[in-house]
Amino acid sequence: MKLFYQLHIPQTFTVLTLSMLVQGVSAQIIYNPNGKDKYTDFENDTLQLQQVEVSAQNGSRLKVKHLTSNTEIIGAQQLVRAACCNLGESFTTNPSVDVNYSDAATGARQIKLLGLSGTYVQMLTENIPNLRGASIPYSLGYVPGPWMQAIQVSKGASSVKNGYESTTGQINIEFLKPQGIDGVRGNLYYDTQQKFEANADASVHLTDELSTSLLVHYEDRQKDQDGNDDGFMDMPKQRQYNVMHRWAYVSPKFISQLSARVLYDKRESGQSLKHHNPASNMPFYSIDINTHRYEGQWKNAIILDPDHNASVALMLHGSIHDSKQSFGQRFYDVNQKNGYAQLMYETDITERHNLSVGASLNHDYYKENYKLYGWLESIYATDKETTSGLYAQYTYKHDDLFTFMAGARFDYSDVYGSFFTPRVHIKYAPNEVFTVRASVGKGYRKPHALAENTFIFATGYNIWNIEDYKQEEAWNYGLSTGFDIPIGEKNLELNAEYYYTDFKNQLIMNVNPKAGKVMFENLQGQSFSHTLQIDATYPLFEGLSATAAFRFNDVRCTYDDELRWKPLTSRYKGLLTLSYKTPLELWQFDVTGQLIGPSALYDDTRSPSYGLLNAQLTREFRYFSIYVGGENLTGYKMKNPILYADDPFSTHFDATQVWGPTEGAMGYIGIRFKFEKL
């Protein structure tokens, strides 16, 4: 089903990036201030419009063809094709992003892009760096799915506007906007693991310019489940409270957005009480994680010259992340405080030439306290870094044929000194059928061994930690091609891409199970990632769309002077998704199948390949929809996800070698509702 909207705005008006992606509909926005058509620039924060034409197709995964970078948008249509309880479950039908459990005890998920850990993906919330450092291990569970309006995934070297930390790409989360549709929306969810979730958001337009919204989230799972009888809970008991309050003021000359957020997350896991005998003298292995997180964000933009898209913007963000964790006899507390500010100016010098310049300031403060009960293994440390930077980015556009974008940053860290970040993007589209993109750029980051890898506490290994971490540094090179091939009255979308990431400096987690230790050390030798992906999307007939993809990973790193496969990284992944809507769009059927290739384990053995199958059925009504579905319907799971579970206090205990599902089939049911106009 195709939709077409035409909006006539009498005066120049400014809208925020992605704000036209209402309900995840794939949108193409054209504005015509000077008699010539241009496309929306999702790489900029603002866009000036006089007459707007929005053509939308009821798609879900949108490849943004006119962007210079290799970018796709996951809209609400794709997010509702699965349970999508949080950000970690939002990539089920996406071929580019992998999400796996980091261990078999805490329920924490980790993201991988281009075959590398999520620490090398820059996470943004509405184009501001966020979810960094101490929040990384559990951050995918901190963003409720119903709160998200869209997710923007950019691969490879990204724009220098958002900093220097992006190595393999950026993931930008767009939350529901206060200036969106008035009303109340909600979601209730329950599954066979006895997990319950409730979400609600409400927006009110107080005036034509001023609006506000409240977003709330609650989840609870208290079941003590041990399906494989290894004595450990398969999934942690969990309870989370999450609240966000937003304000937006939007006028033709000035935009301001203010938001505040509070989160509390509690996880309890470890040995199952069902298998523990209190009369025995054996110690009880328990895991307890309590996290409080507070965030504030303020974005302001002033439109200086609408005819040249000239604007100045100030963005501010602050967060406090406090987590107290215990794993058996290991105790770890971390407190991270972060402050970020960015001032930017952007203008179209001419129709073909765009310039963006800006300055940023980032401050991180960490306080860590780690102790192994009864042993000398302990760490108490404070760490801080302040980094100031300047950037400039120039873009040349020759209609839709050719685009060249070059950016550079100069940053100064009070820990590492000064460093330079260059990035270049080229796009060439000789016709409507074929597009090719190339990119090259550098990325840097300050690693935090324990704060970013707390899953390693779910082992009995002795932890050897160094203090002189080098700044991580890597080059990323990318080449992608896209084909939009007419076949009959429909188009086949075919994409092929290759990315190479080469580390110059990297913090390595070297696990030696035989010696019972894990060593954090600076890279001595090579570390790289080759990723090749091919995917195709085609509407087989009216209402039915199919996407097929295959990705090959070659990820290696030097451990103990030997170049080896990166542990727990699958060699390949195949994906097939089918989505069908009935002619009246009352019913929707979604099926996703995955084939996951083998991974190297810590002892250089290989895991087997396996398949996954997910499905969901949705029935739409006027004010609500009901959905039922299942995950891992083949029932495949690891037999022993926790090694030496019968001796958790030994140096051989390991709950981190998770290469596949730790649970069997799971079913769920939910209801989504919406009532517009409060």
Q: How would you portray this structure in words?
A:
The protein has 678 residues and is mostly beta strands. The chain is 1% helix and 60% strand. It has a 22-stranded antiparallel beta barrel. Strands 5-6-12-13-10-11 form a six-stranded mixed beta sheet. A hairpin with a 5-residue loop joins strand 22 and strand 23.
Lay out the secondary structure:
Blueprint: E1 2-16, E2 26-31, E3 38-39, E4 46-57, E5 61-63, E6 71-75, H1 76-79, E7 97-101, E8 109-113, E9 116-117, E10 121-125, E11 128-129, E12 148-155, E13 169-175, E14 183-191, E15 195-205, E16 210-221, E17 237-250, E18 254-270, E19 286-305, E20 310-327, E21 330-348, E22 353-372, E23 378-398, E24 402-413, E25 417-428, E26 434-445, E27 462-464, E28 472-487, E29 490-505, E30 507-512, E31 517-522, E32 527-541, E33 544-559, E34 562-565, E35 572-581, E36 587-596, E37 610-620, E38 624-631, E39 666-676
Parallel strand pairs: 10-13, 27-31
Antiparallel strand pairs: 1-4, 2-3, 2-4, 5-6, 6-12, 7-8, 8-9, 10-11, 12-13, 14-15, 14-39, 15-16, 16-17, 17-18, 18-19, 19-20, 20-21, 21-22, 22-23, 23-24, 24-25, 25-26, 26-28, 28-29, 29-32, 30-31, 32-33, 33-34, 33-35, 35-36, 36-37, 37-38, 38-39
